[in-house]
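Supplementary notes for students who missed Thursday's class. We covered one full example, reproduced here. Read the sequence, then the structure, then the short commentary at the end.
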Amino acid sequence: MRAMTQPLILLGIETSCDETAAAVLRYEDGRATLLSDVIRTQLEEQSRPP
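Structure (token representation):
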């Protein structure tokens, strides 16, 4: 396999009814590095009384 000249940057997104998550990874020289991740949820809002 030949070496990559530039790192590959990946954006992963996952969603469900209550949560959304995203992550940014860098893949370089056969290794993946997590650059950032975030999870947002509505579970607390939905459990509050009106």
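Commentary. The longest strand covers residues 31-41. The radius of gyration is 17 Å. If anything here is unclear, bring it to office hours.
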